[in-house]
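User: Hi! Is it possible to get a structure for several chains at once, not just one? Here's what I have:
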Amino acid sequence: MSKDEIKMTELDADERRVFAALPCEMPSVPEDEERIVQSLRSEGFFGRRRFAPRPALRLAAAVAIMLGGAVIGSVIGARAGTRTSLEAQLARDDLTIAERILLLQRAGSAYVQAAHAYADATAQTDSTAVEVARQVLVGAAHAMVRSGLDAGMAAGLTSVLQDSTVRRVSRQPSQVIWY
Amino acid sequence: MCVTERAALADLSDSELIRRFRDGDEFAFRALYSRHTPRLRMIVWRLLGPRRDETDDVVQETWMAGCRGMHRFNGDAKFSSWLTTIGIRRAQSRFSEPTHATTEPLDVAASVAMDGPLTAIDLERAIARLPDHQRVIVVLHDIEGFTHEEIATQIDIPVGTSKVTLSRAREALRRMLNDGVSHVKG
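Assistant: Yes, the chains can be modeled jointly so their relative placement is included. Here is the combined structure:
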């Protein structure tokens, strides 16, 4: 008898019912899952290309991050600079006495720095540098007198400045070497 | 990974999870594993018969072989069928090896002869005592619902052989269940 001619043994209804009642699934064991994941990990299956986008994408991302950082930095810097600039502080009328003292110190320091820079840049080529610096200082002394802040100091300072001017005018110009 | 993200992965299709796994996503693999292992484990457990204590080893071998060959899965077949085929072949590879178990599992060794109505437990015991080649066909055809053509492809036998083997396996099951005959001719 060939295989095609064989009379198949069919299941009866009761057998079919029991076959259909057999469970189709058996719960998996968590330890087995971890065992397999460990094995796959040791073979390098995980995390290979997860953070390896295409080069063009990486370049675009780098440029975007750089530009974003630059924009954010400039905005934050501009805001901070505007709020704390000398001019902004001078325009405020809500400063405390202590803050105004600090402001005066800052302005004074700024004057000294500006005078130094001006002198460095122009003393050998522009004789008006010293005169400008002196005039500013004299102006400051006068302002102190008008404000009642001098306590006699402004007069002395003005005198010193005037004496300095007289000595400088009467003296022969000397060779000054700036380093 | 939080519970919400795991739930989102569980909603993805097999093909999407496979794509992510190929990209090295561990959680995509875990989602695939959770989805397909319960059925795979049940099939392997039944196929192994008296070697049931090797079930978890065979399941692990199946997943490892499946993952290593995942690049060959082209999506023509269902992933579950593809994985099951690997599991069947892995289980069959154990048939040629001597059983490591010194005694049969208790549920297999117990007498399968019965007087009352047929129960699922009786049937499981009888299936476990079938010869390996008959048990494979019964499990795949009568329990898992594969056609003879699919079985022929899965275990690389002619379709006719699958039919003949199934017919003889059913007769053997009946004898065991009705008469308590433990010796079954192939």
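Chain A has a mean pLDDT of 74. The interface with chain B takes residues 2-4, 6-11, 14-15, 18-19, 21-29, 32-33, 35-37, 39-41, 43, 45-50 of chain A (CB under 8 Å).

User: Great, thank you!
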